[in-house]
Amino acid sequence: MESFSHAPLYAQLAPIVIGLPLLGATILLVAGRRVGRASGALASTLLSIAFVLGVVSFFGVTGHGSQIHLWSWVPLLGFHTGVDLNVDPLAIVMVLVVTGVGALIHWYSLGYMAGDPGYPRFFAYMNLFAASMLLLVLADNVLLLYVGWEGVGLCSYLLIGFWFERPSAAHAAKKAFFVNRIGDFAFLAGIFVLAASLGTLSIPRIDASVSGGMTSGLATVAALLLFAGATAKSAQIPLYVWLLDAMEGPTPVSALIHAATMVTAGVYLIARVHPVFEFGAASLDVVMWIGILTALLAAILGAFEYDIKRVLAYSTVSQIGYMIAADGLSSYSTGIFHLAMHAFFKALLFLGAGAVMHALADELDMRRMGGLRRVMPVTAGTFLIAALAISGIFPLSGFWSKDAILAAAWAQGQYAIWAIGLAAAFLTAFYMFRLYFRVFEGPSHVQEDLHPHEAPRIMTVPLVILGFLSVVGGALNVPGNDALERFLDPVLGAPAAPGAVTDAILSAVAVAVAVIGIGTAWGLYMAPAADARRAALEHRFAVLVHVARRKFYVDELYGYAFVLPGKRLAMWFDSLVDARIFDGAVNGIAAMLSGSGEQIRRLQTGFVRSYAAVFLFGVMVIFTVLILRVAVT
Amino acid sequence: MTPFNVPPIHLSGIAPEITLMIAAFAVLFIGVFTNDRFNHVVQPLVATIGFGIAIYWAVVSWGIARTAELQLSNMVALDRFAIFAKVVLAAFGVLTVWTARDHLSTHHLRDFEFYALVLFCVSGMMLMAASADLIVMFIALETFSIALYVMVGYRRDELAGQESAMKYFLLGAFSSAFFLLGIALVYGATGSTNLYGTPGHPGILSFLTGSSALDVGLLLLGMAFLIVGLGFKIAAVPFHMWTPDAYQGAPSPVTGFMASATKLAAFAAILRLFDVAMYSLRWDWRPYLIGLAIASMVIGSVVALVQEDVKRILAYSSIAHAGFVLTGVIAANDAGVSSSLFYLATYGLTILGAFAVVAAIGGRGERRVRLADYRGLYHESPLLAGAMTLFLLSLAGVPITAGFVGKLVVFIAAIQAGYWWLVVVALAMSAVAAFFYIRIIVVMYMSERLEPLPEGGGPAPVVLGAAGRAVVGVTALATIFFGLIWGPLIGLAGHATLFAG
Amino acid sequence: MSLPAYFPILLLTILAGAFAVVSIFVANRLTPRRWTDVKVEPYECGITPEEMPERERFPVKFYLVAMLFIVFDIETVFMYPWAVEYKALKAFGLAEMGTFIGILLAAYVYVWRRGGLEWAE
């Protein structure tokens, strides 16, 4: 632990990196109306400067980085906790993702949110969001991390409910908040278990002392509690539902939540305290299976969705599932690698979808789109790049990162995980290109009175930058070089990797699967007579057999194996998990709470005599207990 | 005839109280011999100077109190615990005076008597925190209670104010009866009303250390009555029923004062009584306080969810906060005492600020106190909305505010004492409570103001004078300051665990 | 503190209560009743009775005067034992009583200046 003045330059920059967006948020919250139109530029500039400082830090940081002490918090109660930042390679990678992708989203929002009455407020929240996330990743102790954790939750609530005039937005915000509170509750409990048994709140010290300070069983409990917190933040089974409704916020918010911040917090958290998970080893299996099953389930659900933003939301859930699975496989740097790559192409996808909505007066249904490439070439081109990247096509960014996760599963002998991951990869390619084809290719189904147009320059430039990053991002960690991995090694340890030859074969299989997925989508949505074929598929078995005799044997196999059971499964999950169980639980608890509130309120009659009666009732209870206790002893 | 020996009289322990009494008389005298315009300018200053001198007396005795002592025939304690409470109470008093100044002039009420009442009231509260004898404690309790009854009904021409004052008075008298009965039973059991006792003079503490823990039955009964009496003052469930009505009907500055100062004074008595004098009976009083704590947290948090009146929401929130502080009392260790003090001090500052905002928005007659009246406050007065947001986040216990730190230290103290399950309940309830605070915040940032009322000609714009602005600013800064740099204050609270006796 | 020590007090309480109940009961049963108009009028020291406010409220000034009376009444009650033990208490007693009366005097000045002693507006 070093004081600020003795710390190396790159560590001294860290508080400034957090401070800049915080400053922006403060200015805009206090004097947003006076700043007015300039607020977007102000917020974006501040975050961009933070990014530049982050890059400077990136070139300075090595090894375990530096822990700097800003000021003391509580010199009491046995916990020496201060506002301390941990500037190490892992944190810096996260800082770059948050500030870099975040800044691009900010600049894009200048165009997207132009004309919205809540313009300054929007950027205030966005900056606060970024600041909270930066605090989360740079925190040296769990307490400070929790500060960021809560801040992120709060900002997401405010942003999802940004258009709170809409009941659906208010409901979605409430749902996000509620689910995250469940997670926070578990997370806090996990912190308390760690703090109580290890006597420290400092993350490096927790990581160092966990194997000596507590039993493996207790570590498992702590790890699972922390993971429960992570499942809420990172939208994993069974707490993923809030993310889909979170689409109610403005689209840049979705981009920020999905790509750069919030949902990656869980992945980061597990990597950050991985010694706890390693020591409570049983928890890793849970993490791995939850992750990979989420990846598969969300991919299935995404293949049946018509709302473009919801498809992307399922895709986020699915991709985060991969990252969580990577954490579960103890391949933390791989998870972080995928996290960074995902930030590029997912931000791009959301911003592209935003551009489409912008052009089509907030249309979301892909069935009323089509042929948009002709009028929106930049958006379509960059969207295609992102779709190829997320599908894992060589040599785009997503190929390298997803391949690394699957390779890690193989190397650890987790062949089931590998197979499920592969299946999810197939579905990913399928639903992404289903989306791409329906929106940008083929005949136009756009409503007559709409005249789609390309988005303004302020929106397309970020798209192009992100598109570029989605293409070349993989260079960060190309096998054989593994720059990112070696950078993170001191913090996260080296992940398992198969031999080069096996790796090459596995990669080829993955790419093949992705290509088949794209081909399936092409066959069902783009090829001549695709509509008929699809209609045929939807006419179930009789027609299905008829189509099966034709050329698309793979399609039919897929249809037979997946479409119906998948659709049923999807519907079942949708109705059961989403609506009945989950919504039921949310509404039920809310109703129960406010219902009992109503009941108790009825006691509040306003009459002094009934108040005195309640008072006397309390006295009677106390005396009954007193008498019973005396009688017993 | 036995000769009468004058007992030694040291006034250092009650110098702040005497100062405030003198200041109150000064305010009344200046008030009746001058005109209202002069009073409006000078009297808040006189009251503030009184509080300042009281703080000065308290601070200079901080060094003396390194060895805590009992004074005035063992009636009053001069220890750092009492000094800490007195300084914080005086600060609450100053903030109340300046918040009330605008409010009273908006309502065309004569104000100097109000300041005198605040001075009397704080004087009683200080004595409550310092009392080392149940009789003194009762006198102090009645001193500040009677002043409070008047303050609650200070807007005499309004029915709501009268009603809440009446309710508070009746139920307050009711609870005082229980408290007195408790004192009588304690006297019956121990032969003394003193908390500590000295050789030759029995007291609760010396009785408990001397007795064989068998014949404490009568004492337990007395203890139960004392819990009832003090439970009323801290607004713990089920002795809380007056709270929503009184908080709603009282002028907002008074409500803030009740939530901050009354709570601190009553908790100071509770801490001294249970965590010190009756420490060896902790296994006997803990079940009741745990019951009160859980009931307060649950009912306070849950019922607030369905309220539509901001003052009532804050009233239920104050009930819930009483439950949170009780978890620190239940811990019954040094950390518990210091964290409770820290919690009460920071909560008091926050709630005073919040009610200053409520008073400003309420306008004349405080008609704008519904949730709907807060719509779009941000667009009308961003600073006020920002400050209120800060207060609400602090009440919700969101990090980097003082409220978060308060909860944290109280919960850690409870965990150290082994009450982790109570902390689990508290965490769950603070999660529930977050909802209604956030609800107010969201409403404030909604886009437009409410439609003007047809009859009233629409809500007047929010007016906040320089004094009110200063109060809101100071409390907002304190809320964020103690959320970031809590070391010093909690260090002082740590020293304040030094009790006399 | 044993209960038998309080026994005489308990006995006295019962006796006092019983006396009150019995005498009211006996008087009620044994009294001959012959009502006249004059007899049922409220007793007002021989003056022709005023119209009593039945369901109306009394002016609050009555209460004010009553409370002021009680305050000064209690002052007298405090002064009496002090006067009896004046010699034993010496200067200390004088100072204490001086403080006490001083506080009351201050309140008196306040009430007087605020118009608490004036009957008509």
What does this structure look like?
- The complex is a heterotrimer of chains A (633), B (501) and C (121).
- Chain A is 75% helix and 3% strand.
- Chain A is built from 25 helices and 3 strands.
- Mean pLDDT of chain A is 79; it is low at 544-563 and 569-583.
- By secondary structure, chain B is mostly helical.
- Chain B has one domain (15-451, 464-495).
- A two-stranded antiparallel ribbon of chain B has the order 1-2.
- In chain B, helix 3 runs parallel beside helix 13 (334-362) and helix 15 runs antiparallel to helix 17.
- Chain C has a domain at 55-121: Methane Monooxygenase Hydroxylase, Chain G, domain 1 (Up-down Bundle).
- In chain C, helix 3 packs antiparallel against helix 4 (86-113).
- The mean pLDDT of chain C is 81.
- Chain C is an all-alpha fold and 121 residues long.
- Chain C is flat and about 60 Å long.
- Chain C starts with 6 loop residues before the first helix and ends in an 8-residue tail after the last helix.
- At the B-C interface, helix 1 of B face helix 4 of C.
Query: In the CATH hierarchy, what is the architecture of the domain at 55-121 in chain C at level 2?
Result: Up-down Bundle
Which band does the percent of strand residues of chain A land in?
under 5%
Radius of gyration of chain A: 26 Å
**What composes the largest sheet of chain C?**
none
The geometry of chain C reads as: flat
Based on CA atoms alone, the radius of gyration of chain C comes out at 24 Å
| SS strand fraction of chain C | under 5%
